Amino acid sequence: MVTTPAGPTRVMVVCRKQGDTVNAEGPTNNWWSKLRGQGGFVPNSYIDHPYAELPGVPNC
């Protein structure tokens, strides 16, 4: 299932994993974050954070 939350949206990241590289409006990386409450993953390119690999988030 693919959804588009109203943006900007505050999300809670449960864990992270590497996957396909995403080239979004700005940063390009291959880290994905699993979101609590949304039931899926989002590319970190769409998370407003200066690092591609989110610090303090465990691997899935």
Explain the overall architecture.
- It is globular and about 20 Å long.
- The protein has strands spanning 12-23, 28-36, 40-43.
- It is built from no helices and three strands.
- Strands 1-2-3 form a three-stranded antiparallel sheet, with no helix packed on it.
- The chain is mostly beta strands and 60 residues long.
What are the SSEs and their pairings?
Blueprint: E1 12-23, E2 28-36, E3 40-43
Antiparallel strand pairs: 1-2, 2-3
Index terms:
single chain, 60 residues
- What is the CA-based Rg, rounded? 11 Å
Question: How are the strands of the largest sheet arranged?
Answer: 1-2-3
**What share of residues are in beta strands?**
35-45%
The residue ranges in which pLDDT falls below 50 over 5 or more consecutive positions are: none
- Supply the helix-strand structural class: mainly beta
Main sheet attributes: strand count, strand direction, barrel closure: 3 strands, antiparallel
The helix tally amounts to 0
Name the overall outline.
globular
> What share of the residues lie within helices?
under 10%
* Count of DSSP strands: 3
The overall pLDDT average reads: 85
Distance between the termini: 20 Å
Query: Could you give the order of the helices and strands?
Result: EEE
